[in-house]
Every structure is written in structure tokens, then in C-alpha cells.
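FORM 7B - TANDEM STRUCTURE REPORT

SECTION 1: FIRST PROTEIN
SEQUENCE AND C-ALPHA CELLS:
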Amino acid sequence: MKPREQWTSKIGFILAAAGSAIGLGAIWKFPYETGANGGSVFILLFIISTLAIGLPILLAEFVIGRKGQADAVSGLKKLAPGKYWFLIGWSGFIFSFLILSFYSVVGGWILSYLGRSLLFQLSDLGDNGFAELFNGIIGNPWEVLIAQAGFMLLTVWIVQGGIKSGIERASKIMMPSLLIFLVILIIRSLTLEGAMEGISFMFVPDWSFFTFETALISLGQAFFSLSVGVAGMITYASYLSKSENLGRSAASVAALNILISIMAGLIIFPAVFALGYTPDQGPGLVFIILPAIFDQLFMGQFLIIIFFVLLLFATLTSSISMLEIVVSIGVKNQYERRRRTAIVFGLLIFLVGVPSALSFGVLSEPFMFGYLFFDFIDMLTSRIGLPLGALFISLFAGYVLTKKDVHAELNEQDVLVDIWRVLVRYVAPAAIIIVFVQGLMDVFGG
């Protein structure tokens, strides 16, 4: 029987975990949520939410994963034999499957844009040309399906290679490249005339946006961007050796997530303000407004290629973690079945994602509660699935794992372990319940 793999280095694990966390949450969703919710105040609340709520749950997943040393279902069965806590693992399986089914659709859109940018087709489209292009792409059934299939093929190709040769190797290439591309684009954005208005929007507080609603959205963004709640970090940590410091690794992942989110803002908002746009453009910010902005810049066609390569890398680092959750549970201890399992689940995820891909064209009628199929799956997973998973992970770490168990994994001072246990026992569950209830109202309230 093939032995269970491990990460070959601490940096490989951190880059893979950070890549899982970053994804579209940092590069796509963070900028448009920031733009719609007042800029600096939202960023401040996002940082607080990440450190006070997201980080403790992230660390809880790390502790559970490394202690279990198995996939999320088997590991939780081992840690709580005869109990039903292993359902957390199956919940992660189901929601990762569903998230990737629509996430791969957005990955396909990115591939379509990248292909057009490489052919220099993202220029001189006029005032409404970029909006028409976006609507044309997402409404074209053959293009979205072929692009979605291409994105899933890339994801399957990486995951079937295993931890060392697949996920870790890809993360070591994509994450440093992502940081380099971010820096290049930030430099260009900050050198635009009028860029300081965007900097002020990001870092000078407008306290009129300091509301309960903004705090709630920032908390939801912290969950979404850290990828907690679907057992992804349990899965990744299960491949980690006992010699690594979990606390430092979790802090590194959270810090990278905050850093890259802010770096994405430093690309977008100085350019948005410098060229006369408004920041509250919503989800179309990346696909409609940014190409229009780059089209007005010197060497803009080259910069747009860099941006969509960056976005593709960020999206892939998250998609491979979601597929790994599914594959690890499907493989169990028969690691020689990894390649076949990755291909089979990749195909199934693609098929389940077909209605999402067609939601803006031939299946544009509301599916349920007034939502398109794509939007319903997005809401169901991000507003209900992620918070629900995070809640039970937090409760398991706080009440099932003993203090001795936690000490054995964290090897930290008593006071730090005590603070962490208070956060995962009381603070995080209370915050998660608020997000979960609001999510129910959003989904079922229509």
C-alpha cells in the first residue's frame, strides 16, 4: 500500500494553505465588498474579524487535522470514536463539492478573459464595450462550458499529482508569482495621477460606515477569504509533520491573507479613482471596470495579461484545496487510487456545475427563492455552509478536544492556549451564529 504523503517543507505547507485561503476571496470579492462598504472602515473591521474570529477557527482546523493525521471524516472518527462529529468532514465534502461546482465557472470566465488578453482583444471596446463583452461571455453556453471544463482539467491535473509533486509544487510556483505580479500592478497603479484619492479611500476612515451591517459583512468576508468551515485546513494540516509550529503557521496564513487582500485593493482603488470611476461597482469590478481601466493605461494590454494570470493563479490555489478535500475523503487510505479518484470527482463536479455555467444564458430563469442557480449555490454555501461548518469545528475544538490534546499540538504557553480556548468556545460561536442567522434570512428571504 502506498504510504500517506506529507508536506516536504514548512514553506510549502504555508504557501498551499495561504493559497487555499486567498483565491477569489482576496482578489475578487474583497475589493468589491470594500468598495461597496466604505473602504477603510470595512478594511479595519475585516482585519479585526480575521484575527479575532477567523484565525482561532483556522488554528482549530490545523489542530484537528494534524492530530487526526487522516482525511476529515476518518480523522474526526479517530478523535471522537462512536460520536457524530465525523459529519463535519462529510459537510466539508458536500460544500467543497458545491463551491467548486460554481467556483470553476468563475475560473472559466478568467480563462476566457486571459485568452482574449493574450490575443490583444481587450482594447478599444468603447464606453459600454466591456460590460457587453462580459455579458456576452457569460451568456455564451459553449464558451462558458468549454472554459469551465478547461479550468477543472487544470485543477484535476494538479491534484492528481499528490501533495509533494502536485499541490506543493504548484503552490511554490503560483504563490511567489502571484506576489510578484501584485507588486508590479501596485507600482503602476500608485504612479497614476490622482491615485492618492484611492489611498485615502482605503486608509482614512469614514465612520459613517461603522455600522452593524458593515461589521457583519466584514465577518462573512473573513470566513470566506480564509476558507474555514469546509475542512480544507483540516485536510491540509493532516499532511503536516509533528515538528511544525501550528500557531506560527496559522498566523502566517492569516497575515498573508490580509496582506494580499490589501494589495489587491492597492491595485484597484487608486486606479479606479485616478480614472474617474466609483468604487462601488459590485462583482463586475474585476471583469468590467478593471479591463476598462487598463485599456486607458500605457502598456495596458500587457498589464491586463499580468492581472488575469494573477487571478488565475489565485483561483487555482483555492480550487485545488477544495478538490483535495473531496479526493482525500474519496481515497481514504488507498492512496494509489488518487489519480482515478481526482478524475472521477473532477468530472462529477463539472457536471454539477453545468447549471451554474448556464445560469446567465439558457438557464437564466430563477431557480429557487428568486435566485439563479449560480447565485443560489453561492448563497447556500457561503452564507450557510461555511458558517455552519465553522461553528461545529469551533465547538469540537473547544469542547471535545481536551486542553492536554491542544497543548500536545500547539506546544504554547498556558495563557495563549487559554485565550484561544475562550475564543473558540464562546466568541467565535457567537459571531458565527449571527452570520448564520443573517445568511438564512438572505437566502430564504429572497
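SECTION 2: SECOND PROTEIN
SEQUENCE AND C-ALPHA CELLS:
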Amino acid sequence: MTVSLDRLKSTRVLAVLRAPSPDSALRAADALVDGGVTGLEITFSTPDAPAVIRALDEKYGDRIYVGAGTVTTQEQATRAAEAGAKFLVSPGTRENLTRAMKDTGLIVMTGALSPSEVMAAVEYGTDVVKIFPASLGGPAFLTALRGPFPTVPLMPTGGVSPENIGEWFAAGAIAVGAGSDLVSSAALTAGDWAAITRRAEAYAASGVGA
């Protein structure tokens, strides 16, 4: 079955949200949406991540594109899908996990870095290959991967900022993932939601909705 990646392409930026509590995750998500970033990846390192996903889905509906990140077990994939996630992201690629994620019917993104890992991810049926940590090679590395994999959807995560986001898309990214640069642990700890909104606005001003 061919899945549509149109929503991911139009969203462009997924905020990788690792929060210390469900409440801080929800507050940070509100701050991101206020700043113009509507792609929200709620990681399973966030306490009670499925409840956060469900609450955001009920509050915003189609206004946001919400999914689960740091998916490392089949149970997590199932729980995220039941909570209303629209996509699933794993930091690496394992055959059984990838196939279980695919069984949910959601968009599946699994992590890879080397060409061999990209080939394995494609073989196991991932919809998008998450290049992680992309900061190790930068946009030039993504350009190099485009040579042997011109049709594979690639999403770099790590090393993305408002200053270089255009370079990532020019290198062939279908979307980008932004973690601590967008939602810093300091802002989360301090409850500085305004700082998160300002950073989201910087991403939006760099062409998030282009």
C-alpha cells in the first residue's frame, strides 16, 4: 500500500518534544502551536506520552500533525495508535518493530545513518527514513545520500536550526525534525513557554509553511 506523505511535506518541521511531565508537554505543545510549528512528535521518554497525544488530538484535531517518537517496542506503537497518533518515529530500525509499526496503518519513520541502514529501513517497509543524528554530517551528508537513494524520503533530525533549515531542504529533505534547538531542556525546566514560542516563530519565519 502506498501511503500519502503530503501532510508531512506540508508540515515540514516536526518538533521532537521530550518533556519531564505530561503537563509540561502540553504547555510546550501549546507554545509551539502559538509560534507556528504544528508538527508535534511526543516522545515516549515523556511520561504518559499516549495521554499527551490523546489530549492534543482532542484539543487541536487537524490543526496539528501529532505523533509518537522514540518508539522502541510494539506495545508503544499500539498504544500511540490507539491514542490518536498520526505517525510513529523510532530512533533506529529493527525489522520486527518496523513491521509492527506498519501494522498500525500510520506513517512510519525509522532511524538510520549509514547507507546500509537506509537500505535495511527501506527493505523493512519504513515510509520515511529518519537520518539521525544528522548533525554528524550536516546537509552535505544528506546530499551525498541522495545519490544512491534519490527516491527515498529522508528526514534529518539533529543539527537543524532556523539558520540552516533552508540548506536541509535544498539537500533533499522531505521534512526535518528539531529537538533541543527548538524546545530546550532549560525552557522546559523553567516553564518558559514564551521562549519556546519565540523559537517556534524563528522556525516559522525561516519558511516552515513554505
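SECTION 3: OBSERVATIONS ON SECOND PROTEIN
Residues 6-205 form a domain with the TIM Barrel fold (CATH 3.20.20.70).
The first strand starts at residue 13 and ends at 17.

SECTION 4: SIGNATURE
Preparer initials: ____
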